[in-house]
Amino acid sequence: MADTSKKKDLSLISVAESAKFYTSLCLGTTAILSVFAFLFLIPFVVDPSISSLMADFDPEPVTCVVTQHVYAEGLRNCSWASCREGCTKEATRCHQMHVNYSKIPFREWSYTNRSVEWDIVNTKIFINAEGCGYPPSVNCTEFAKQYGYHTRGTPFPCYYSKVYPEMVIVRYSWDDTLRQLILSLAIPNLLFAASIGVLSYWYCPGCGRSCHKYMHRFPAEDEEHFNDTTY
Which parts of the chain span the membrane according to its record (predicted)? Predict the structure, then answer.
């Protein structure tokens, strides 16, 4: 009977050690992936979101009209683009658009029966704050068809920057931008902190003893009161 119970204890210990090993492996992988994910999100989400929030775009869409649309090819001719598919490479084909915009809200545009005085004339417009993105969310061909070519001159909603009034974009949402920024900062860092915290608790015996030592360095309230009364 004693041998049987000892074997059961050993099997339970081995199962616990195996579970701890594979859990530690998963936590270590999670910590490493969290670091790489955070580094990946910095140029693609964090930095653009911060730039968008600092530009302080008006959340109420105003009225824009495309005044000029140029399709160009070649690196020399594509020094800038209203839309780029991919944010890390130079564009060899580009759509360059200029617009006039009025600060009249777009929802009130149809009710405007007077001649409009444009607040900003012939300024560049971009698809978003970065001027680029990745399919399927960003399709420059569809963007050009929607706002350029034969639709040029048709009013459409756009957003202007209160900090840089000549900066105009087509897509913007303050709530979505803030949500993306918070999630991109919180999720990788929380996963990394939780993984490292559990691994440190399991495999760093000195951490527990150190905390225990610091807790005993300070006397309890009763001991302080007793020492004071004795003197």
Answer: 21-46, 181-203
Structure tokens at 61: 């869409």
pTM (two decimals): 0.74
Handedness of CA 131, 132, 137, 143 (dihedral sign): positive
- The two tokens of residue 23 are 């859990």
Q: Per-residue pLDDT tens for 154-202?
A: 899 999 999 999 999 999 999 999 999 999 999 999 999 999 999 888 8
Q: What's the pLDDT score for residue 2?
A: 52
- DSSP codes of every residue in 137-151: T--HHHHHHHHSGGG
- Mean per-residue pLDDT, 42-67: 92
What SS3 class is residue 204? coil
Number of Cα atoms under 13 Å in the Cβ half of residue 108 = 10
What gap in Å lies between CA 53 and CA 159, rounded to an integer? Answer: 13
Q: Do the beta carbons of residue 31 and residue 197 sit within 8 Å?
A: no
Angstrom distance (rounded) from CA 121 to CA 64: 10
Provide the total of helices (H) and of strands (E) in the chain, helices listed first: 6, 7
Q: In one letter, which amino acid is 51?
A: S
